Amino acid sequence: MAGKSIVDDPLSIPRWKIGWLKQTGTVASINSPTFQSIERDLDRMGTVIKVGGSILDAPNSKEMFSELLALLPEHRVALVFGGGLQVESLRQADRMSVRPSQETHIEAIEVMGNVAVQMASMYGIDLTKQWPPCNNQSHSIRNMNKTILDVRDFLSMHEANCGGQPLPVGWSVTSDSIAARLAAVAGWDLLLVKSIQPPWTLQEAYDARIDLLADRGWVDEFFPHTLSKVKNIWWTAPNQPVEFS
Length: 245
Description:
245 residues, alpha/beta, Carbamate kinase, seven-stranded mixed β-sheet, globular
């Protein structure tokens, strides 16, 4: 891993708790991993990292996200951002609208793209609209630096032709399923960055009941259907609840 190692920055580690959702097809253990224990995997395998929009809406979002960036590898990382409150406003408006939900969902994808552009500019991270596995450019993905992905072109032009189960258009799909689909297409791992920890019991975690997390709204409705090709899935969330103004 280039730059500062996780173990060289111990003060930032307690802010983020990390855990398994799935490991090589099954949950490996009920014991939580640490950023140190997965550092080698993150750097070797390649990881799609979905950052929930609610994290970006928090009053201390810049500090939190900067600390998280310091824990991530410099290579083979693709960051996907949710739309946060802007997308939630669209969802609420859609419930009272006569417009087809598909149209509003497309507007939500536009918001995600705009957030990606803003975050790339703010943090000086490369921005790309291309996802090489869909273009048979495996060499490009092996050499990819830490990158923010604008998902608009992928979803509108490539996703349906990438093999596997395509994503439906509608509110059953959010940035959770989009990030999982990207990981599945590339054969990469997935890390979900959330504002709260998974609302499940120890036994449910041991049994990998990701379907229950969808039922409880922690991930979107379609998310459990995207995971067959994703070997390793982690989550991370602040140790303390995120306070919103």
